[in-house]
Design goal:
With 82 residues, the chain is α+β, with helices and mostly antiparallel strands.
């Protein structure tokens, strides 16, 4: 798993998940209480007739907490079957 660290030591990921779904996940994820999670809805991506949601998530805080939360995000949403 490649962790997308930014130059200011935060994690930033653009994903094809609806912003309300990510917000609900972050509100119920205990690790998120130790980090700052910012969500930015992006315009959907259109591929032919398919319209895919897009959202940018930024996780900042203590490096270990950010990494732990990103790993939980990855296992929940980005791994096969998530």
């Amino acid at each position: 798993m490649r962790v997308p660290w930014t130059s200011d030591n935060a994690i930033e990921e653009e994903c094809g998940i609806e912003e309300p779904r990510l917000r609900t996940w972050a509100e119920h994820e205990p690790l998120a209480k130790r980090c700052t999670v910012e969500l930015e809805p992006l315009p959907p991506r259109e591929i032919g007739a398919a319209v895919l949601p897009r959202c940018r998530m930024r996780i900042s805080g203590a490096r270990e907490d950010c990494l732990a939360l990103y790993e939980r995000f990855f296992l929940t949403f980005m791994s096969a079957g998530g």
